[in-house]
Amino acid sequence: MEEIYKRVNKVFCEVFDDDTIVVCENTTSSDIEDWDSLEHINLIVAIENEFGIKFGMNEVTSMKNVGEMVNLINEKI
Q: Cβ–Cβ contacts within 10 Å for residue 73, how many?
């Protein structure tokens, strides 16, 4: 799981162009200034590309925080 968090954090830094971002399991869109609906789509695509996975629409809309995202990634890889 630690390796997944490292890779997810790298993607967040790239998508939001901010090397100071450090995500944890409780990180939500309200914690990152530029995380709006458009950036959420970019983030999901970047995560899918990083891990070679695809999220279903229900999965995308049900994620409440980074921890849930990481758990889904872990199930898919």
A: 20
